[in-house]
Amino acid sequence: MEKRATEFYNILVPVSSNDTGEQAIRLACGLAKKGKSKICAVYVVTVSRALPVEAEIQSEIEKGEDILDYAEGVGEEQGWEIETDVLQAREVAPAIVDEAAERGADLILMGTTPKTRFGRFTVGNVVPYVLKNAPCRVILYQYASPPAELL
């Protein structure tokens, strides 16, 4: 079977909150090909260098599981079974890239929210690392910020 440039069969969606995760999962479901695609949502727990990387940080693991449960529910609403996984790593970005390579992902769909630092737009450190090192295509989905009058 020849794969078209716009068909994605193995989509990795890193999530960090219910709001951003919901939007990213909905978009992944829209991009996936019915009956042929797999969607995997991952939450990365950052483990301090003072602890072994396999140390169980129960509060963070539970937070990740709650977010992933929510992502599964969003997927079910869209008619998809979403595979989920809580990862533990020293840094988020390399964990995402490694997971994409390990799973043979052909798309990483990452959500980001507009941020400013020192008055300048920024996407932080994770997005640039993933864009530079990803073993597959990356779609960066920017969530709209609320209008200033609502803040």
Can you tell me about this structure?
The protein is an alpha/beta fold and 151 residues long. It contains four helices and seven strands. It has a five-stranded parallel β-sheet with strand order 3-2-1-4-7, with helices on both faces. Strands 5-6 form a two-stranded antiparallel sheet. Helix 1 (18-31) packs across helix 2 (58-77) and helix 3 (92-103) packs parallel to helix 4.
How confident overall, as mean pLDDT?
A: 87
Helical content class:
25-40%
Number of separate helices: 4
- Output the radius of gyration: 16 Å
The main β sheet shows up as: 5 strands, parallel
Q: Spell out the helices and strands N to C.
A: EHEHEHEEEHE
User: Given the C-alpha coordinates, what overall shape results?
Assistant: globular
Query: Which range does the strand content fall in?
Result: 25-35%
Low-pLDDT runs of 5+ residues are 146-151
Distance between the termini: 50 Å
The secondary-structure class comes to: alpha/beta
| Strand order of the biggest β-sheet | 3-2-1-4-7
Number of strands: 7
Features:
151 residues; single chain; 36% helix; two-stranded antiparallel sheet; five-stranded parallel β-sheet; 4 helices; 7 strands; alpha/beta
What's this entry about, in short?
By secondary structure, this protein is α/β, with parallel strands linked by helices. The protein has four helices and seven strands; from the N terminus they run βαβαβαβββαβ. Helix content is 36%, strand content 26%.
